[in-house]
Design brief:
Blueprint: H1 6-9, H2 30-46, H3 52-78, H4 85-115, H5 122-145
Helix pairs in contact: 2-3, 2-5, 3-4, 4-5
Length: 149
Amino acid sequence: MASVSPSAASTQPALPSGPAVFKTIPYAFILPEIVCGTWVWILVAATSVSLPLLQGWVMYVSLTSCLISLLLLLSYLLGFHRNSENWKVLDSLYHGATAILYMSAAVLQANATIHSEFSTNYPLNCAASLFAFLTTFLYILHAFSIYYQ
């Protein structure tokens, strides 16, 4: 029966905690995800919501993702993970699922932008669409860059 030597187990990269979170890929993506997601939420909230079903989903996804990402960032900053491998799986699953949800929200926001082409909310909806797709890209980058450490 083959056994894993202690030197092979210690080659796993350690999960960052404290300020090192902001210097380590993919964990450095968490703060831009929060900032861009907050802009999506603010910009959609600033419009007079003409399509509540579409933009309600965008608001739900952006606000929920911002809050959960903020909790995840705080847990990394405070070192709650205790260098457990389960946190990498949790992080990857969360960011993968959120990337899918954000892609659906970004497409719905783009649809709402098309419908508001001749209204005064068009620039706000365009900016919200841009930030929604940017946030989607950040979540995708985060989800896949965990595998390339």
